[in-house]
User: Fold these one by one.
Assistant:
Number 1:
Amino acid sequence: VSSGFCMGFMIAHHSCVRGSADIFAMITACNIRNYSIYLKDGLLFAYYEYVGTDYDADMAKMAADPRTQEWWAIMKPMQKPLDTRAPGEWWAEMQEIFHVD
Amino acid sequence: VSSGFCMGFMIAHHSCVRGSADIFAMITACNIRNYSIYLKDGLLFAYYEYVGTDYDADMAKMAADPRTQEWWAIMKPMQKPLDTRAPGEWWAEMQEIFHVD
């Protein structure tokens, strides 16, 4: 299952973050694979594939991780979520309208 | 190598197109894999992975395919490319700023 999300502007300096290897390992531990973020005109698009069986539980595990919380505390002030996002969303989920393997 | 692109509004009715199986087969023949298109607020994001060795040659092959030309003739009038696209672009390439396998 692949997912697409988009939101407003962010500047990322991943290599500057203490413990970024820990954050990457947590992403993998939460069954996220092939995770990319793209930027164009101040708009971000994130793509990843979820390979687990309990998405909500994995997302809760990620949110509970202290290193991930530290990372989000740096990143979130640089992000402006879309006004059209759904209630409870930060990144706004996009509708998949086409897929060819 | 994965790629991200975005552009303006499109309405797609893929199943209505004659020979859509041919078009999908041509996409695969041109070494495109894991190709998805997402929609949010009239903005499209396309993601795919190129697994060949000569991207320009594969894109030329796709562009020369009659079924693909028929498909594009239907789709392009429904698409509004981004004003900020590079010269020669239709879909505007996005910069990949983050990746975790």
Number 2:
Amino acid sequence: MWSDNDLTGTLGIKYPIIQAGMAGGPTTPELVAAVSNAGGLGTLGAGYMAPEAIRRAVRSIRSLTSKPFGVNLFIPENPHEDQMKIEQMTEELNRYRDDLHIQVPESVQFTGQPFEDQLNVLIEEKVPVFSFTFGNPSHHVMSMLKEHNVKVIGTATTVREAKQLEKNDIDIVVGQGSEAGGHRGTFIGSFEDALVGSMALIPQLVDAIDIPVVASGGIMDGRGIVASMALGASGVQMGTAFLACSESGTHPKHKEALHSSTDESTVLTRAFSGKPARGIKNEFIVEMEAGNAEFPDYPIQNALTGDVRKAAKAQNKSEYMSLWAGQASRLSRNLPATELLERLVDESGQVLENLN
Amino acid sequence: MWSDNDLTGTLGIKYPIIQAGMAGGPTTPELVAAVSNAGGLGTLGAGYMAPEAIRRAVRSIRSLTSKPFGVNLFIPENPHEDQMKIEQMTEELNRYRDDLHIQVPESVQFTGQPFEDQLNVLIEEKVPVFSFTFGNPSHHVMSMLKEHNVKVIGTATTVREAKQLEKNDIDIVVGQGSEAGGHRGTFIGSFEDALVGSMALIPQLVDAIDIPVVASGGIMDGRGIVASMALGASGVQMGTAFLACSESGTHPKHKEALHSSTDESTVLTRAFSGKPARGIKNEFIVEMEAGNAEFPDYPIQNALTGDVRKAAKAQNKSEYMSLWAGQASRLSRNLPATELLERLVDESGQVLENLN
């Protein structure tokens, strides 16, 4: 199962295991480098990072590994700036600010980081792999990436999306099953219609496109890896499994929440960012979903909740943090990434042996 | 992979493949017997059948096979007879009656078939395997089944439910992933919290209980079977895959809908029965979900829509039928069940070989 395939060959890695590029802090240079050094593909989740911060992180990764690694960015969106919604939400969030003893911010920057500038850093720093979510890059961007021999990984939640990525000359498609933690990558149609479980999604993706399919969503150990390969995937992308690693920048309270979670703990919500994402249900989600204020579009809502989430982290208040997690988060293990990789490989071998 | 395991041993079957006991017509005695004769476990979906109809069907199955087979029943519920909801829904349904040129029924029988009488037929006819959904049988029922050496299969959508089934001395647990077609088996907590994808659900069930776990939800071919076994399941239960078989009583328009479906076609709805179930989105679902009338409890809503569904079938109007389907329905194949079983076994062998 570990012999070279279309995925490991394309990426120049030993094991077909990609550590997901989770934005917001968990993917430290130490985590990314450890995964790549152990034979997988580490990925910096740089969607929310300023261009120069990406440059520093990439250089830091480079100082720790000579192996291939990736950087993940978000395809930018054009949100509708609904002033009424923004005002109501600001009001709604004030009760958390009161509770956290923080001031209402004087101004909030609604737009995300400048995508073209982020991308230029990747080109300048010769990042070997670029992965993205929330859409499909423009023809111009794809030409630039191809010209610089960057391998490109897109994210699809349906067959329609995967076909559109393939048409755009993407090298590899990550199929995001409904089990996955964090943001839904859906960019065509409604996210509800695109909540397809991995068991159903992966074989349909494999049948529909000719480029390598990487399974993601609910994969936590050797069982999930072998299952994904059986479904026809060329490899796996694991997010939640790496959240709990010692090198990850995940907040300790978030790690605790993963370990004490059950299969019923997670929920899909727009409360944190305006875009549907899966996380462990907490006070913030329950109250915001029940509240009267409508969520402004992503990334406006993300900007509006930024100070609350930051203060919640600083004050160890997990009830107001975004505790992103997939549906098998209870299987997460607090291990150094190198050891986790080794175990994943050993377990997969064991699972395969038991099947024979 | 096909050597005797805890599932095949307990049930006395050759291959760990169970044909789901889908109620409402698809599981003809011919289908059930063909699956059992081919080495799987055929199951009569008898939830909506009168006791004497079950007896006739069981005798018919017996005349076609000497192999073990199962009968599936519903654990009865105590619905709230909300007269206001019932009147509004009756009114709401009249537009379909107009369109189908049928009369408003003079009276509707709200209660389901008598469970104890159904069960007594199973005992009297010495049915070897009893499977159920929507709960957990009483201690009295379990004692009776055990006394008559009936093997008992329960359905769980969460770890909590599986543990409760194990505690009740159930022999085998079917883990129903969120991909599955038809009714959600959830009987503890909210069905939304219990929508766990197979990739995440199965390993957690296997870790939590000591009795055999059977994977279900989105499994359509050898890829899904090997994936399920890799996740730790002792076997699989397949519903949608058998819906399209030549022997199944599935309406031809329903089979057509399966074949032309995509990964985005299905939706969860209470519109047909009052209980959440996954089917292909059609006019009836869209209109009823958008309508003003609230759905009465299951099985009251099932009784109220009965004449509409029946007339829709008679008149080939698939827009008003319940087109139950899992999230991989596009992978269904219109084959005789014997041939499907053979292909599933061959494919699984091939998948396993490719993994090595």
Number 3:
Amino acid sequence: MPADGTALRWRGGPDGQLILLDQTLLPARCQELTCRDEKTVAEAIRHLRVRGAPAIGVAAAYGVVLGLQSAVPGTTGSLRARLEEVIRCLAGSRPTAVNLFWALERMRRAADGLLAEPETGPALLSGLLDEARAIQEADVATCLAIGTHGSVLLEDGHGVLTHCNAGALATSGRGTALSVIYAAHESGKRLKVFADETRPLLQGARLTCWELLQQGIDTTLICDSMAAPLMREGRIHIVLVGADRIAANGDTANKIGTYGLAVLAHAHQIPFFVAAPCCTWDLDTPRGEEIPIELRCADEVTHLAGHQTAPEGVQVHNPAFDITPARLITGFISEHGVFQTADQAIALARARNMPFP
Amino acid sequence: MPADGTALRWRGGPDGQLILLDQTLLPARCQELTCRDEKTVAEAIRHLRVRGAPAIGVAAAYGVVLGLQSAVPGTTGSLRARLEEVIRCLAGSRPTAVNLFWALERMRRAADGLLAEPETGPALLSGLLDEARAIQEADVATCLAIGTHGSVLLEDGHGVLTHCNAGALATSGRGTALSVIYAAHESGKRLKVFADETRPLLQGARLTCWELLQQGIDTTLICDSMAAPLMREGRIHIVLVGADRIAANGDTANKIGTYGLAVLAHAHQIPFFVAAPCCTWDLDTPRGEEIPIELRCADEVTHLAGHQTAPEGVQVHNPAFDITPARLITGFISEHGVFQTADQAIALARARNMPFP
């Protein structure tokens, strides 16, 4: 861990299984979870055993393969029906990260092509597995490219603030925001990384610190509320975060707490960058207000490690994400380069003869 | 609880004890701690068994009485030496809240007067107890006056954000920021209070929610990072916090997270008020930069309820307070009224023939 992408991996051929690292147990335990059907994958996404927008996209793609295993051999009609059932199950796991829906749509298109052929049973499974693998391999390459493009933004001696976990554990490669840090670190720049703990589920404390320490990067854990004074003291030179969905106008959904950091960075004139693959853009959603925000259960806030910390009966507001308006985002770091608007991103992708998103 | 001030109370006469509610155990358990010497009081302050700037001032005042009990009867010289030892012990418990030093200074002045008399043994103890009681009674009255002055700032239907605990548990009365909420609630205004959980020690979740629920106030617990989107959604109409020390220029030390909230409130054009007794002003400290900020141990951030949540070996930055510059503070709510500068506060106090601070 983390650069070899063990957040998730496929074991075996078309009749194989998806192996996930159960991230809810980190850093205390490294325990794998074997998924043999789409319901286990959907449950793992819902309970954040696998999380991070790119990683849940890849997990869902493999989930489609798992879901179809039980339907083969079958008629084209029964396979189509099963495909829709599997996609519905996986799409219902979490609402905000668009990579999930993007990956499922890619799998549906691949299945459509495969189902148009006669005798599609084994060929369907192996074709779907190829597609899921292609999504995963592209994610690995995308992470590396994001790191390369973003690392020029970091200078030797910089203090870097990151929120939640946008690292290897959030992707099948080596991350988005953290890939930028890894690339800059490898190029010899000495960085001081501040990791927000990221309440309520502590992905920053549990996952980001764990990843960064394994790479030998100077890492300091802070509570989310401590970022502002560090900014004021001049100890933060850049903020790097990931994204779960980017609307056509650049408004960005990311882990709760991101919007506040963006306002604070703006007030302290600190550059604020979003590192995300282009498949995180959702051009069908014009503005941030239209991105659905997942509300999660009260227990995540009122209980810590099974221990109740708030009084019985208190109301809890627990949105998993917030929306940062485009005007607060200095730039987007993607596999195609750094840009500021969807139009620039599309032009960049076109220049490289690549699809967007 | 909370309006009857059971955060701390004196039991008995000059040879009595200080009874504290151990706030580290709330809300799971209401357990009292009996203090029989100044060291137990200092330990209770250091470990936040009693916390909140006004409450630790009152606790320290009683701690002086406890510390002198063992020195009586004694010579004037031995009593003076013991007094300085006791004050040094209590003053070393926490560095930021000025009310602690203010209360100790009041006790020293009272002792000086008493020690000037012959045969000061029992009279010294009973005189010191009278002074500690006077500090406590003034705090009760101050809290009520803060509530009355501040409540006019709240309107029916307002969403109110508060941070940490500036309530009955932080004072010997019914609080500072929360006193404003209690007074507005009692006058029939329907409020929706959002309580920041306040990492790392969760005073908001554990103490503020507990207090507010007992008063039947509509209370919603949020993580600290969730305040910003609530502000953007127009659900917060005013921010009310307490203070641990206010420099002569109005820069205010308060629980870590306060500065970030002030920046966010400013960005969203939401009024941001500090509710604090005038003894929180430290006119000897010209600016916020000169207020000492307590750095607390890493365990508070890396462990939750004895459970380790961050990887071994990670660095931790854990300041207990931050400084909010005066320009971000809409006004100060004190026992003398609402004002914006120390000069106004002094004039207000003078008009009422009251000392400042």
